[in-house]
TrEMBL record, chains A, B:
Signal peptide: none annotated. Involved in the assimilation of dimethylsulphoniopropionate (DMSP), an important compound in the fixation of carbon in marine phytoplankton, by mediating the conversion of 3-(methylthio)propanoyl-CoA (MMPA-CoA) to 3-(methylthio)acryloyl-CoA (MTA-CoA). Belongs to the acyl-CoA dehydrogenase family. This is 3-methylmercaptopropionyl-CoA dehydrogenase.
């Protein structure tokens, strides 16, 4: 069952659900005309179908490997990467001054969705580079921008993010890597970093590591952290890769999935680096990189969900078992298989609309500078990340189930989707961290962004939906009155409820726009609204109830 | 984090939740005194901790392999199997006349839980043998019983189930394997069978395949199927393994998990077999084997959930990240990690109580012949299978999440639990099939068994629980008025709702029995009841809504 890029579905979401025309109406993004959008999605989709999708199994079967200190990538990945780079897809949203296309992030996300459906392990590479480009555009010196960004946009060089250390995961502030001023404009960076996605490869000329480390006078915690550009090969006077930097890949992780993506332990031994942004302000720069990467990871969940759904439908329409009492005897005509497939399809539509809605907000914020758009995008980002990746995991699991016994056999490919997507709920901040961000930082506006979204939902005028939105409004008010521990106790359920209310909203909008979508929308809303109500009940748990079960009882 | 057998927890469930004393009060099971139960659970638990649990990783890393037509099992599995056999754990519930202990199936399930927590891939072997023993006790001729059952009970020989063929999975009636009368009391069995768990091994003297095949005069569909005992080595006049039968392992599947369990494609080429039961009545015999195996597979979900929970708690209490604002800084003190761990713990308690409740019903039915007990056990079996395995998958997933990035790294072991348990929702009848059995066959009593269970729940007298039970009663009445397709459309949600209402009931009973359990019970009921309400809303979907989304739209 070959992957087919969902170009018309993406167009429908852009045109009828998330109001992409408003983005195209801005001066900043005036080039993003409907014809341009169609051309981009069609061209990118073709590459994903023809070049990337065929690589996906090879990456799983023949993982990236460390040989004599150098990473050998999976078969065909070099060609796949070149196709992505040559298509201009890495730097779609980058500044045209550096070779980018200056297009909306919404279109980057749409293209990323398809690339990730084709081959998620490979897509993680340009996703990291895209984040690095944004961080450099926002924070680096003109010299660094001029040298690095064009190479990153063209794909000659690749970018990585180096945050985590063994003792510093979700708690980034606990990191121990150090940087010392060499007195010549460079710094000596020393430390070990783990979970470095695409820490090395054999298809790019250079690898540009953005590394968080602490200067000698840096305070403890996140406030004393600085960001450094530490390239694998130190650029010479002509900007070509010169001598080797004092850094190395120590080992690669043996992972549940994403075998084609080398996850490195990196060692920096006084490696030469350049400061990016102000001293001690590294976290702000890193957040720039991570923020859009969070949406990008949510889209990875969508990517896998779409690929898994297509795979499952292909199987279900081929596999015959028993009498269905309907025209055809393939298993898609059996009620419970159909239920699974419709649920997958419903969740995918909601996830795609949510991701694109978030991206449109980010684009509108950039184009207009409007604080309300910015707040809307910031509020939707953790929801898009967590719900997108949860959907990826759920849909991949349902995809296995649709395959029956064949789903457990690796050759089918159904299991790979689950193995690959599982990490998306963990990296770029676990989904629990996303939920805490939502009920903490994202409610610091006293709920303004949340209430504005609920205004939109209620204005749509569907009774059941409005009832759910009203409950969610009351829950939001309740959250605002709680201390942070109580909010955290219900955070994941609050996020889950918000995602489902929005999901039902998008579906009902779709039904209003196109009558053929009404049946799926009715089915989706009939699931998402009751589920949202259940999540809302759970969201009011409160910390006291959690800690009433003592640690001794838990460990007994 | 070594596995610790939850002996006292099992005792609590038996004594305070499912009324095991009623089983022990019957003549049939008079030996199952509290002292006997304690001794059995303690002894079996010790073996699981010390012998089986250490094998679990080895089975994953070094899968069973086919070498020159013979299966070489994973390192240590032969010793592990011998420990299980020598402990008498295979034939705990088998007839003492054949060397069994004649103990309640409830105790077999309790011991099976611990064996599966220790090493699920290995546990699948005796589980298949246990099912075969039951089928032979109920349906085989005295000659076959006398020859085979003692060897199966002692573990000298192992048993397998051969149902599935490439075109006949959930639709067993589509099988093509044939059997012809040899005229000497034996039959020549020919055909290919797939997904044969433990189709071969290198640690038992003989392997006894129960094979479904069709006699020349067998009707089409399930009504024309007969069951045959087809041993790997044909027993000689002394009952010792003699000449090789004409059967072979063609290949082993490369699976997502359970690598230590060889899943074989078996080829029978006129292999010598003996009829078990009446001609054309093979499905009835197979159902005997499958029925308790279904409960056994539900318990497998529980096994993995318990092991994954212990593993996650061990990690969470060791891992320090950030400030928790509480006494300790390990991540179990963070609200969202605690939420995950409590949810895991709550679901496991409910799953264990459900499995044991079902087992007690089966034992009481056997001991008393009472039709109400029989119906109760039959109603609970598909719920225990589906909810148990869904819980295994969910808890294993949460276990990965608790580990953060380490959860995606195979060395941690968290991912193996998910890979291993995933198939339990598929084999012995997919969870969708279980749900269809529940709303179809198990409501053929016009809801009597369902209503009797809801009477028990309502009699407990908790207001929230009673409200949920009343809704479930109305939903059951609604189901009884629908045609089968409409029932099937809501079957999985109906089962999910029933499981959660029962789960909340068990928890509240636990709180009433032991006040230290009240906090977890409150937390559990506060989740399960709203979730049950959501599932009940979804259960009323109806087939029309499912098929309103046309196949063309799905495939578009």
């Amino acid at each position: 069952m070959p992957y087919r890029a969902p170009v018309s579905e993406l167009r429908f979401v852009l045109d009828h659900i998330v109001g992409f025309d408003r983005v195209a109406a801005t001066d900043t993004f005036a080039e993003a005309t409907p014809d341009m959008v169609e051309a981009i999605l069609t061209e990118a989709g073709k590459m994903c179908e023809e070049v990337l999708s065929p690589l996906n199994r090879a990456g799983d079967i023949t993982p990236a490997a460390l040989e004599n200190g150098v990473v050998r990538t999976s078969p065909g990945f070099g060609d796949g990467f070149r196709a992505i780079a040559d298509g201009g897809w890495i730097g779609m949203s980058a500044d045209p001054e550096y070779g980018g296309m200056g297009l909306p992030i919404t279109l980057t996300m749409a293209v990323n969705e398809m690339i990730g459906s084709g081959c998620l392990a490979l897509q993680l590479n340009p996703l990291m580079t895209q984040g690095q480009i944004e961080a450099l555009e926002a924070h680096a010196s003109p010299e660094i921008q001029d040298l690095y960004i064009p190479k990153l946009v063209s794909g000659e060089w690749c970018g990585t993010m180096n945050l985590t250390e063994p003792q510093a995961g979700s708690d980034v502030g606990a990191l121990k890597s150090k940087a010392e001023d060499n007195g010549d404009g460079t710094y000596a960076v020393t430390g070990q970093k783990i979970y470095i996605s695409w820490g090395d490869n054999d298809f790019s000329e250079n690898i540009c590591h953005l590394v968080l480390a602490r200067l000698p006078d840096g305070a403890e915690g996140t406030r004393g952290i600085s960001l450094f550009m530490v390239p694998k090969w130190i650029p010479d006077a002509d900007g070509k890769p010169g001598v080797a930097n004092t850094l190395k890949v120590v080992s690669l992780e043996h992972k549940l999935g994403l075998h084609g993506s080398p996850t490195a332990v990196m060692q920096y031994d006084g490696a030469t680096g350049w400061l990016v942004g102000e001293p001690h302000k590294g976290m702000a720069a890193m957040f720039t990189m991570m923020n859009n990467a969070r949406l990008g990871v949510g889209v990875q969940g969508l990517s896998v969900a779409e690929a898994a759904l297509q795979h499952a439908i292909g199987y279900a329409m081929d596999r015959k078992q028993g009498k269905t009492g309907r025209d055809a005897d393939h298993i898609l005509e059996h009620a419970d298989v159909r239920r699974m497939v419709l649920s997958m399809k419903a969740d995918i539509f909601a996830t795609r609309a949510l991701a694109m809605d978030c991206a449109v907000s980010l684009d509108m914020a950039k184009a207009t500078g409007d604080a309300a758009w910015k707040a809307r995008g910031a509020f939707l980002t953790p929801i898009a990340k967590a719900f997108g990746t949860d959907t990826g995991i759920k849909v991949a699991g349902d995809g296995i189930q649709v395959h029956g016994g064949m789903g457990f056999v690796e050759e089918t490919g159904a299991a790979q989707f689950l193995r690959d997507v599982r990490v998306t709920a963990i990296y770029e901040g676990t989904n629990g961290i996303q939920a805490m961000d939502l009920v903490g930082r994202k409610l610091m506006d006293r709920g303004a962004a949340a209430f504005a979204l609920l205004d939109e939902v209620e204005a749509f005028g569907n009774d059941d939906l409005t009832t759910a939105a009203t409950h969610l409004r009351k829950l939001t008010e309740w959250m605002l009155e709680q201390d942070m521990q109580d909010r955290f106790a219900g955070a994941v359920s609050y996020l889950g409820a918000f995602a489902r209310v929005l999901g039902a909203f998008y579906h009902l909008k779709a039904a209003a726009a196109e009558t053929t979508r009404a049946p799926l929308a009715a089915y989706a809303a009939g699931r998402m609204i009751p589920e949202a109500m259940a999540e809302m009940a759970k969201a009011r748990t409160g910390a006291a109830e959690l800690y009433a079960v003592s640690t001794d009882v838990i460990a007994a």
